[in-house]
Amino acid sequence: MSKKEFIRRIPEEYQSKLGLQRLKVSLIKCKNKTQVEKAKMLLYFQSEKIFENINEYDKLKAKSYLKNSLYEYLLNSDINVKSLTTKVEETIHKITIIDIFNKEIDKREIDFKVKMKALEKRGVDISIKKDKTYDSYITIKNHLLTFKCILEKDYKDINNDDIEEFKYFLLEKNVGLSSIASYFKHLKAIFNRLIKAQKITFNPIIVPSVESLSEDKKMFAYSDITTILDNLGREDSLLFKTLLYTGMRLDELSSIKKKNIRNDAFYFFDSKNKFRKIVPIHENILDEMNKIFSKINDDDYIFKNNIKGKNRVDDIRNPFNDLFKKLDINRTLHKTRATFITYLNFYNDNFNSKDITTLTHSLQGMDDKKYVVAKNIDKLRLIVNSIDLTKIKEIEKYI
Question: Whose CA is closest to 50, among 34, 67, 35, 74?
């Protein structure tokens, strides 16, 4: 910064309103170094007033306000430099929650790229991978930018009352409780990292409880499944049945290409724990699957090959969930996995518990992960083929 200029960068959230990226005022009329320093302090705090009342200013008004403040000072006033210096120091060294989020977002972006490069080397299709945590950080930051109570505080001064106010602020913006709970979990994790780095000693974030309806945790009823299938086209119907018969997550099934099919089974990476997994194709849908495989290339997705990119999974999921709402079925597509897991736990038919776990949950430890790949695929095929969707009606009596 020139000794004869006052320059201050405008916070990102105010730049579009003022049509400026920085405030700049010439101090050429100041008589000496002391007067320059006093003028800079004055203009710093006058710019704070602009930010505090941002809706009252545009580009011209902001510039005029600072210039008039400078002229008035040069003509009429003196400033207590010592008191202003203390105040300036406190303000200059302030680190806001937005500053913290910007660092977290930058770090998350770098970490995700490193993670994706490692997965790509292992043969994982990363073209459809999306960092949902990164997206959540951006969403939370955008909410915080409109909440001045926290925005203008040093992050160390944020307390439980501020967080409680932020919760009600989000509720007033019609943000759902489950989304708020998710946002607060991210906030709590960030503050925990600050505690671990010995930046703070207290975490002000309390994650609000969400009273999830037990109904929402249930599997699909058999009547729901038949109703849904009656309202789906051929490809969507097969996709839905594949999820029910395999327990795969949608992002896993969405990543499957023809080249990932061997021995009438899906070979892929578990999307949560990133280890290799094998899930046989159920005999009830095998013929339909083989018809698809005969018409596509090795690098084609087996479902919805026309949908590509980072939003592929969401673009496949959303029409299903919209249909469920239209049919008044209080489920999401992910409940196909809950249906699969509940079924196998109910009808385990004396299968090896470790074999069932390889299909329903993540295994722990390197030995277990190797077990998934090395084991006899015929055992898994017996488990998958044991699934009879009509028998879900019997489970419904107990839940």
Answer: 67
